[in-house]
Amino acid sequence: MKTSAPERERVVGSKVTRVDAVEKVTGLAKYAPDIYFDRMVHCALVIARKPHGILHKIDASRAQKLPGVFGIFTYKDVPGKNRLGEVVDDMPCLVAEGETVKHYGDVVAVVAASTQKTAEEAARKVRLTIEELPAVLDIEEARRDEIRIHGSSNVSVHKKIRKGDVSKGFSRADLIIEDNFMASYQEHAYIEPQGVVVLPDTDYGMTVYGSIQCPYYVQSSLSKVLGFPMSKVRIIQAETGGAFGGKEDVPSFVASYAAVAAYNLKRPARLIYPREIDIHTTSKRHPVKSRYKMGFSKDGEILAIEVDAYMDMGAYATLSPVVMFRTLVHAAGAYSVDNVSVDTYGVYTNKVPPGAFRGFGSPQVLFAVESMVDEASRRLGIDPVDMRMKNALREGSRTSTDQLLTESVGAVETLDKVNELSNWKELNERVEAFNRGSLFQKRGVGLSHIIYGVSLGAQGQHIDKSGAHVQINRDGSVDVRIGGTEMGQGAKTVMAIIAAEELGQKLSQIVVHQTDTAFVPDSGPTVASRTTMFSGNAVRIACKSLRERLVKLYAELNSCSEDEVELHDGMISCGQDKGMPFDELIEEAFKKNVKMFEAGWYQSPVLEWDPESGIGQAYITYSFASQVVVVEVDMITGNTKVLEAYTVHDVGKAINPEGVIGQIQGGFVQGMGYALSEDLKMLNGRILTDNFNTYIIPTIRDIPRVFKYGIVEDEFSEGPYGAKGIGEPSLMATPPAIANAISRAIGRRIRHIPATPEYVLNVIKEDAE
Amino acid sequence: MTFKLMIPNTEGELQQELMDDEARILAGGTDLMVQMRSGKVAPTRVVSIKKLERLKEISDLGERIRIGAAVTYSELQRSHILQEKSPILLKAIRQIGSLQIRNRGTAVGNIANASPAGDAVLAMVLSEARVEIMGPKGERHESIESFIIGPGRTTLSTGEYIRAVVIEKTDDWQSLFIKVGQRNAMCISVASIGVLRKGKEVRLAFGSVAPVVVRAHKAERFFTREGIDGTKLGEFVERCVESISPIDDVRASSWYRRQVVRGELMKIFGHPDVGGTDVT
Asked: Does B219 touch chain A if contact means CB atoms closer than 8 Å?
């Protein structure tokens, strides 16, 4: 994209206060539970609470009698199609009598009542007669296909990459390593649970306010469930207290349940999930079981890589096929390898359906491949940094899908920088010296180097686009409307920075509104670390048109050359003139009927991709990261503490550096929880760890005392000001870095995450290999 | 779930309120509120003791310290008597919950809750605590070990409440408290070990590895009688392990609990130079 902004980009890259900080800190921000309407009913869900079985009867008679119960709605009350699922619609909205329940959290009925408590009490009184069937509870069992959950096989999705010839690669190898890895579930643990308010609106349709990542998904899903045209379904995103992928497709389900109540009662309906219902019923990170085989030359070159990865899709496929695309492309890691064979499979089980989660199917395999590379560097006696450096991607390299990288490849620079930032050599010596003097505590240094394909990629390019609407009001204040959403990641601030940069208005005069499907066209989902790039480009394009009109107007009013007009920080000037405040120029524009609104639109460049061979342009570009951590393992308890962390990310360009740092820190901590303590335990398909007393996320006391980061800015020509994405890669580097550090500390390989104290102690106590 | 909140002004009124089987005392509420939300308990009457000033006292009884039922962990941490005379209780408290929890939670509440994972309970078991109970029949005293009879179960009967706990001063003992949890703060013990040592005398207690916090009386006597030199150490540790009966639960397996108890004891008593500097 051609840059027409002046050479001084004063707002982009500067330190600014988050535009929504004050409201969020003082409690003025409105989340879904803060939104009330007259005659509003409160909803609660009746869930199956059996992993597999035939639902013979739903008996709501006792529940119906409770005072304050307005209605109990089942599949019979769904006005449109009783189906849900964004990518594969294999999930019922409400399970019908005579059909099978397929997991513990399957939703059977929606209760509406005068209070939340009454609704919950009534939900407990609805009796379900379920004839239990044997349940499929793990990947191996599912693969045997003795019990089938849908159709002819439990293994229903398969994707592959075939690049070069792996057998040739292995035949040339001096070292071949084979190993198996398991990455377990992770719960999103957003601080705000799922929640919506659905109301019959003034356009004779339905409006939804909710904690939502992807309003357009909710709109299309609701239109099907209600049997309404999309024009009669309006989604307004309420302030959203964290999402991490957990509010990608799930709010479509939540809103559908509430909409069934709102439709039948013709009243506003509110459905806010208690934490336990949220954990039992909503998506997670997929468990992935993988087998790796890699061949290396003795000087550390990766000659071949072969991967099989099985992904537990739970009871319904939902987003799994697209999650699996990312698993496929990232399975071979961040390296230039000539011979690659990857097979990924999606497997049905009678468990909660996992879906999107920061990293989207890639952290599981990046943990595995980086463990393999670490093991190779250990066995070959090559320094882990040198090992990565030897195989790292550079401009002119080809990825595992044979995509030629032509620009913005900051991989090597992240390695160089993390080497320097961590003082790598000295750090390793320091840790070795500690270990010589310590019997019960052992320390280890772990390195990871990862790749992240930005935005939706080849298999999602048909929805990879974004719109924006920018309007300057008569007083000079600016309304920015985007299709992406703010969910805590800082999207609003980035959009305001871009608008301020392009229009020359003060940042404080720019309002980025809550996303509303009534104002901006379908902009795809707010996922895949794509908002800065996609919504950002759309805002920038709209602002550029407005800017051109303002420049022209000022030049006319002041008889000067358009080339010399500058807009900055609320002032417009030309050459040496004393200039004019932005607001006054807008007043002039209004008097002259100059069009002061504009739409922006940005879409993905076309990617060539062959799904048969898995060869082609998988993503528009890639972000890279390298990370070093130091852990201390207690050899008696197996407990791991992360003492130091050094992380370097190639983000293209940091439009809002404070926001980038926030993402780097937050992603690290979430990745650390995934790597160490977040152990989702189940018994017969029921999640036991259904609140934060047993599902253990890190606290501030678990954060390493030494945390240093670096930012590499290898600009990407398609990105606004060169920006790529940081939302997901911030997490992805951490699990392998920690796993490798523990492996080095205890002298045994970690093959399972989370590496809980109990797992680590098991590995320590295993007989010597 | 509806209940009446009662805030008595005197202990006499408190006793009246407690004559109802469905009444529960609210001190800090850090256990009660959680149990009410989950439906584990559903009292019709919640009786707050916040206005009972006498229950907020910490008193020095010479050889012993008396801690009132409404004294919070944070207040104990700030108390000079406790700081000087009960290092073991302070070490345990430091590892309980978070600052917010310690600002609300009470040591007596920890006893009433009778969890095998009670960190303060463990320190009080080591301090030979006696529980001061008031009830319709007047005052009675019971040792903490006999007072707690199972997970969540005590000898308290209808109308009775714990007025205070009286612990021994243990400043002349070396003390050690080890908590094995799932993270560094806000965690519940997966296993905990407390040790007091004075010359040839030792006191040992374990948390989260039996239905109640247990004292290893047999092992203690063995320690005094036989010592732990040479092969005696292994024998001593096995006697300790005999006193525990861990189960598998959502936090850890019984295998893991046994491993860490055995491992920590070997470290504490077998490697004074690196592990057990506090007690040996």
From this structure: no
